[in-house]
Amino acid sequence: RYDLALDYSATTRRNAQWVIGAAFEDKTADTDYLGYRGVRVYSAFRQPIGHAGGYGALSSTIRFVDFRDALFITDRQEARFFTRAALGMPIFGNGFGVEGGVSHTRRDYNQASFLRDYDSFGVDVQLVWNFGK
Questions:
Q1: CB–CB of 70/48 below 8 Å?
Q2: Please, which residues have CB within 8 angstroms of residue 43's CB and are 6 or more apart in sequence?
């Protein structure tokens, strides 16, 4: 699997952090129709909240995948969309924190794939390690 990505990130004067990027993917497989080529664009934003180290975060990815053609197998293509919003608070020190988030996932398939499009909403709590600070 090859993944080539290019992104740009910055920090604002108020310590908000953001990134925006694009990528190309290429995956081969022993079974041709499991390999694919794809492109994706992504972005993320993180804003400090208050003086105790809390933050809000928002991220999103749009990904288009075209699976390899194989004899007697329909050409599958799909678009994947993912968005997540979260609030985080440090615990334990040393960059560890707890983060609560809500997310939305959507997959759209082409008609030839015979798969049903779907939407999914989620709620999660994560233990995170913000390293490099």
A1: no
A2: 18, 19, 20, 21, 59, 60
Predicted confidence at residue 58, as pLDDT, reads 98
Return the structure tokens found at 128.
């995170």
Q: Phi/psi of residue 113, each to 5°?
A: -80, -20
Confidence of residue 114 (pLDDT cuts 50, 70, 90): confident
Residue 15: HSE in the Cβ half-sphere, 13 Å Cα cutoff = 9
List Cβ neighbours of 89 (8 Å cut-off, separation of 6 or more).
52, 53, 54, 97, 98, 99
For residue 1, how many other CB atoms are within 10 A of its CB? 9
Round to whole Å and give the CA distance between 123 and 3: 29
Return mean pLDDT, the chain: 90
